[in-house]
Amino acid sequence: MSGEFGSYSSGYFHDQMSFAADDLETGRDALTREWGKFFAEFVPIARAISWSEACDSGLYYPISETIARIQRLKSILGDIESHCSVYKEVADNAVREYVRANAKAEAAE
Q1: DSSP H helices in 1-109
Q2: What is the signed CA dihedral for 18, 24, 27, 33, rounded to 10 degrees?
Q3: What is the pTM of this model?
Q4: Residue 12: which of 56, 68, 65 has the closest Cα?
Q5: From residue 94, how far is each of 80, 87, 91, 108 by CA, in Å?
């Protein structure tokens, strides 16, 4: 388990986010690619944050980029949540069955 995935190139914050988005968008797993969409949508916000923190722009720039992209980010997160909901349901059912089986075993004692 090396965890060797993606770029390890240097760069500014927004560059790193862009590298991450590129890596994720070309991942082999569907969930990875969904996160790629999220990161790609976040890159302009990351750039605005970088410019603001470097005093190359005012505080308004990250705010305006966030306002412009927040609905799309929420939509992508909804897609990610939907993708994972099947797995959450399976996990919830497994825990419920385990608890139910333990309760029966304790009652039988």
Answers
A1: 13-25, 30-53, 60-108
A2: -130
A3: 0.78
A4: 56
A5: 22, 11, 5, 21
User: What's the residue count for the chain?
Assistant: 109
Dig out the tokens for 52 from the structure: 């603001």
Q: How far is CA 81 from CA 3, 30, 36, 64, 99, in A?
A: 24, 13, 14, 26, 25
What pLDDT, in 10s, does the model give residues 5-39? 777 778 899 999 999 999 999 999 999 999 999 99
Cβ–Cβ contacts within 10 Å for residue 102, how many? 10
Cα dist from 83 to 28, 61, 94, whole Å: 15, 32, 19
Under 8 Å CB-to-CB from 64, ≥6 apart: which residues?
Answer: 48
- The one-letter code for the residue type at 10 is S
From residue 73, alpha-carbon distances to 27, 31, 34 in Å are 19, 15, 11
